[in-house]
């Protein structure tokens, strides 16, 4: 399983709802096993620059590629890109890349 996590900050905090609305298009793309769009609760004591989080799960890298090639993905980019400042993305294969909990020392 591939986990796809994307973090966004808004250029103007007044546009966060519009960013969430534009990203919500992603939830209708059929290639994901799971897609969540959420406003960051900003409870971290060290950094709260991120406004919106996209979390997705995909059965394979092929499914993730099909998701990114979908026309609604491109439409979401068209709507969100002018409103966002930062965008950070991370993808990893749970079976290959995730490390089990390490014992505490």
Keywords:
4 strands; Alpha-Beta Plaits; alpha+beta; 30% strand; flat; 105 residues; 4-stranded antiparallel sheet; 4 helices
Fold topology:
Blueprint: E1 2-10, H1 16-23, E2 34-39, E3 52-58, H2 61-69, H3 71-80, E4 84-93, H4 94-97
Antiparallel strand pairs: 1-3, 1-4, 2-3
Beta fraction of the residues? Answer: 25-35%
Overall mean pLDDT: 94
How much helical structure, as a percent, in the residues? 25-40%
Low-pLDDT windows of residues: none
What is the CATH architecture assignment? 2-Layer Sandwich
- Count of discrete structural domains: 1
- Main pleated sheet: 4 strands, antiparallel
Regarding CATH, which class?
A: Alpha Beta
Spatial separation of the terminal alpha carbons: 30 Å
Spatial extent as radius of gyration? 15 Å
Q: Count of helical segments? A: 4
Q: How would you write the strand order of the largest sheet?
A: 2-3-1-4
């Amino acid at each position: 399983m591939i986990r796809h996590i994307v973090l966004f900050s808004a250029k103007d905090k007044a546009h966060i709802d519009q960013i969430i609305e534009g990203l919500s298009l992603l939830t209708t793309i059929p290639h994901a096993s799971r897609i969540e769009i959420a406003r960051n609760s900003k409870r971290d004591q060290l950094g709260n620059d991120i406004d919106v989080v996209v979390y997705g799960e995909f059965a394979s890298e092929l499914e993730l590629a099909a998701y990114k090639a979908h026309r609604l993905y491109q439409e979401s980019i068209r709507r969100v890109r002018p409103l966002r400042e930062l965008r950070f993305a991370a993808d990893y294969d749970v079976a290959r890349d995730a490390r089990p909990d390490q014992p505490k020392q």
